[in-house]
Amino acid sequence: MICLIGLLALALSTSSHAAEPPNILFLYSDDQQADTIGAWGNEHIETPSLDRLAAEGFSFRNAYCGGSFSAAVCVASRSMLMTGRHWHQIKDKSNWEGHTTLPEALTGAGYRSHIVGKWHNGSKSLLRSFQSGTSVFLGGMTDHLTVPLNDIRGGKLENGRTAEGFSSTMFADAAIQFVRQEQDKPFFLYVAFTAPHDTRNPPEKYREMYYKKDLPLPENFLPLHPFDNGLLTPYFRDENLAPWPRPKEMIRDQIAEYYGLVTHLDEQVGRVLDALSKSTHADNTIVVFTSDHGLALGRHGLMGKQSLYEHSMRTPLIIKGPGIPAGKSSQAFVYLHDLYPTLLAQAGETSEAVPGVADLSPIWREEKPIVRDTLFMGFQRHIRSVRDQRWKLLLYPQINHTQLFDLKNDPGETTNLAELPEHKETIARLTALIKDWQQELGDDKPLTSETPKPMHYDHTQFKQKRDRWQPDWIYEKYFRDQ
Q1: Cβ atoms of 252 and 421 closer than 8 Å
Q2: Nearest to 33 by CA among 295, 304, 265, 307
Q3: Looking at domain 21-373, which of 3.40.720.10, 3.30.420.10, 3.40.50.1370, 3.30.70.60 is its CATH number?
Q4: Distance of CA 404 to the CA centre of its chain
Q5: pTM of the model
Q6: CA angle, corner 112, sides to 106 and 118, nearest 5?
Q7: What is the full DSSP assignment across 232-294?
Q8: Is 87 helix (H, G, I), strand (E, B) or coil?
Q9: Residue 176: strand, helix, or coil
């Protein structure tokens, strides 16, 4: 009888432990291309921590930002993540009034919500989303060595200061401090790094290691973008970070510095993961690593992310934790804002059904291979795009231009097939899909213009301007003619 009672007590204890909601550690990089992980096939970059995370977790190899309503793409991307909606479905794009944010929903489910790092969506949404925070950066970008910071205590921002040290290290320090604490409830720890966003000034060791590698240019490098996509005149700030045409050696050096930022970030991610593995939370924490969007950095003659090309919209996404298979991956199309219902489901909560948004856990549980057949993206009023497993269509309504890419045979989007008559039916089919997506998401922008703007632009009229964020050595190196 005693034995039976003991076994029953053990069973109840085990059941109770298994029923505990998991902690969630959300690691968020800034401007990180999807192809900057060694384990995902990039032989030129060193990312041992992310490689380890991929080996221990589940990789979504076709994760995307849904586009943007803003030239600051991260504002829209983070808005989608935090509200669980495509940007067309967000009523109030400034403060998200009428939408419950992800940390708010988790707080309502009994979680402690804490933020470290970047928040580029205003203090009003920040303070209603998180119960506490350390080393919070409210801006969009800054020199990695002079980040303005605040903490959140008692529902208020306080302790304003300028950081001492490099951004990635400092944010990791704050995250580690939180992870080491005992908690009386499950936590949602949101750690938003500012790397590898420019300024591209990693610690010298990390850029020098890549200068020595003589990195190859991307296969889709161009000195100039072949037409004005509606975003080049006037050009956005990101396009100002190299002159026109783009010099090959300058792009190589900027890629080296960008990779240096990624490798340094990877080292800091590793420190956080090591602290988690040594903590009392190790066995019951879901870890998410992703980024807000990608970056061009010389691809297609562009430097920024204000486009719908793969390099700018695809992001890394790896999820690890209890019940999530290790070392596996999926090619299913997923959005970053799918993480909203996904993480709530892992916390044992249901979320409001939103058209076009899906819980991703059935994919890693092998209950279904995909959650959608196609993927739709939009950039302001300038571009609309849809892709399926093979084809990708981009429409430029302001200039009545069309691009069609065969991603199976041309993943770098180098050859536009839109003018070939044999693809007329494919274009018609994909255009119909764009209209279907528009109707589902409430996007009422036309796909053509009766008075289109010219596609041609004169790059000789572009003048590189000094960018106020850059440290002196970057001014001297990349703004030498100013």
Answers
A1: no
A2: 295
A3: 3.40.720.10
A4: 25
A5: 0.95
A6: 85
A7: BTTBPGGGGGS-SSPPHHHHHHHHHHHHHHHHHHHHHHHHHHHHHHTSTTGGGEEEEEEES--
A8: helix
A9: helix
Of 298, 296, 325, which Cα lies nearest the Cα of 312?
296
Integer CA distances (angstroms), 278 to 25, 178, 180, 190, 374, in order: 14, 13, 8, 19, 41
Q: Domain 378-461: give its CATH architecture.
A: 2-Layer Sandwich (3.30)
Rounded (10°) angle between helices 48-56 and 248-277: 50
238 is written with which tokens?
A: 């990101």
The SS3 of residue 182 is coil
Q: How far apart are CA 363 and CA 26, in angstroms?
A: 20
Other Cβ atoms closer than 10 A to 465 = 10
Token pair of 266 as six digits: 């990877």
SS3 (DSSP) at 226: coil
Q: What is the mean pLDDT of each run of 10 residues along the chain (482 residues)?
A: 39 46 98 98 98 98 98 97 97 95 97 98 96 97 96 97 96 98 96 98 97 96 96 90 96 98 98 98 97 98 98 98 98 98 96 94 98 98 98 98 98 98 98 98 97 95 91 90 60
Q: 398: Cβ–Cβ under 8 A, 6 or more apart, which residues?
A: 230, 381, 382, 449, 452, 453
Structural domain spans, the chain: 21-373, 378-461
